[in-house]
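Fold sample X.
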Amino acid sequence: MHLTAWTIVQVKSRRPVKPPERLPRPGDRQPARRRMPDLSLHPNAQPLPEKYRSG
């Protein structure tokens, strides 16, 4: 419900009407982590074959 519509409903209502929930904004989100997850901890993880190992 838009804030203006909520204000009109609040004025015309005999009982208090709780305000609408805030919409999420792009800036409110926490920044995503930059590092890659450790895939070796996955239950289906298998060792990398020798020919694909570097170094």
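Fold sample Y, listed below.
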Amino acid sequence: MQMMSFYAPKNPIKGAYFMAHFNGTDEPYIFERDLVPPPPELQAMLFGWIEQVFDGHDDSVVEAWHKNCMEEMTGYDPDKVREDDVFFEAKPDIPAAQSGLEQSAHTDKVAFLKLMVRMRRVIIQDAVLCLQPVPGTGRTLSKSLIEKLPEIFQSQLFLDYSKELLQAIEQYRETSGAIAAGIRVDSADIIEAINRSASQQTVLNRTLAAMEAKYQQQLQQQHERHTQAMGVQMSQYAQLVKEFKEMRNRCLSSILSNLASITRLLSTLTSILNLLSTLASILNLLSTLASILNLLNILSILNILSIFNILNIPISILNLFTIMLHINNSNNRHNKRHSII
């Protein structure tokens, strides 16, 4: 395994396998506690500082490390990928003489941290079984977990996972007990089918729950946006109606004001026309009076001539003609002045 090749390769790993009652590293086996993997959110409560180890490096380094931690918690198998997909550079610049030693230390650091991430899963699964009452005693194997870490082992995430895992173990035991004794209940096919079924069911349930929650959230957000948009539109419509009424009232007021002004103007024009007509009548009267005065002047002159009778007839005719010209000129000037007015 890659974990063995990178982390503590000189330790007696094979001896540890035999102490755990395995005949070899390739022997098929199954742990009942591993039927249901704990959710990553619950695993992250243990050793929560691991994800922040490479904070301060480039964003790509931090993102790659978080991705590796998530893969380890979700059952990622490093034996099926290239070494470049698992390890990444997160070292400061160092002299060339120290680069080999620094590379080795960095590799061991990453491998040990990844081992701690994988141990999250094991610790939580074992805690579920350790906290179950021992048959016949009513006691648990360990109360210190709850006393020392209640924020983890009394959290709702842990309680939900514990219930789910215990149900899976009970179902597995019932299924395995119904199989004939000659069939290996720990054969690779049965183990893979059970693990895959339980894991897929868990993932499916969580996916459906997440999708339903997301759908409800989107539906609520859409309803709120629709309600808000309708409120804005109604407010805009009310404002438009108000502005239209105000504009209509202003237009009516302006029209009435203009009609009143036109009425006053027509009345003024009528008065002016009446005044002009009166002036024309006065001018005609003055013209008539002037004609009468001229006629009176002519008669006066004729009387004077007849009284004195000092001129002969030709002179009288000439004077009469002169008087008539004078009267005619006076009338012409009077008519011209009247036409100008």
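Sample Y note: The chain has eleven helices and no strands.
Also: Residues 2-186 form one domain.
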